């Protein structure tokens, strides 16, 4: 599947589900969601950025997104991404496993508060 096709699929999903998106670069790395807005996911230039974009949309439309546990929300978003993807390659699965493993180090009952603490600790380590 060509990057342009993956890009078009993401645009289609955003439009179809009426999800706003932006390309703000204010936060470093990756993509994220705010309410019904997916941020920083475009352009899709590779299988990995396609997977990331699908994952972020999965945080809006996927299952388990009401869970208070981070790992459950992450799994729900990846399940949605895998299901809705027009293709699912080893590179995409690898990215999914890598990111999920990172969250799993927090433990199955970790909440957003634990995640914020982790990010804060990492940010301190960097300075
Ligand atoms: Zn996620």
Q: Please tell me the overall pLDDT.
A: 87
Number of strands: 3
Strand content: 5-15%
Provide the structure class. Answer: mainly alpha
Number of domains: 1
The biggest beta sheet reads: 3 strands, mixed
Neighbour order of strands in the largest sheet: 1-3-2
Low-confidence runs (pLDDT<50, min 5 residues)?
A: none
The distinct bound ligands, ions and cofactors come out as: zinc ion
Helix content: 55-70%
Order of helices and strands: HEEEHHHH
List keywords for this structure.
binds zinc ion; globular; mainly alpha; single chain; three-stranded mixed β-sheet; 127 residues; 5 helices
Please tell me about this protein's structure:
- This protein has 127 residues and is mostly helical.
- It has one domain (3-126).
- 58% of the residues lie in helices and 7% in strands.
- The chain is built from 5 helices and 3 strands.
- It has helices spanning 3-16, 47-61, 70-84, 90-104, 112-126, and strands at 20-22, 32-34, 37-39.
- Strands 1-3-2 form a 3-stranded mixed β-sheet, with helices on one face.
- The longest helix has 15 residues, at 47-61.
- The chain is globular, with a radius of gyration of 14 Å.
- 26% of the residues are buried.
- The model has no long low-confidence stretch (mean pLDDT 87).
- Residues 55, 59, 74, 77 line the site of zinc ion.
């Amino acid at each position: 599947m060509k990057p342009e096709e993956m890009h078009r699929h993401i645009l289609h999903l955003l439009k179809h589900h009426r999800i706003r998106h932006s390309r703000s670069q204010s936060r470093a790395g990756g993509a994220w969601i705010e309410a019904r807005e997916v941020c920083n996911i475009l352009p899709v230039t590779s299988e990995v950025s396609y997977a990331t974009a699908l994952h972020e949309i999965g945080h809006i439309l996927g299952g388990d997104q009401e869970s208070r546990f981070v790992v459950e929300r992450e799994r729900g978003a990846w399940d949605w991404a895998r299901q809705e993807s027009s293709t699912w390659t080893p590179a995409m699965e690898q990215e999914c496993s890598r990111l999920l493993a990172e969250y799993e180090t927090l433990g199955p009952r970790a909440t957003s508060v634990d995640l914020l603490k982790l990010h804060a600790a990492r940010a301190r380590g960097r300075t």
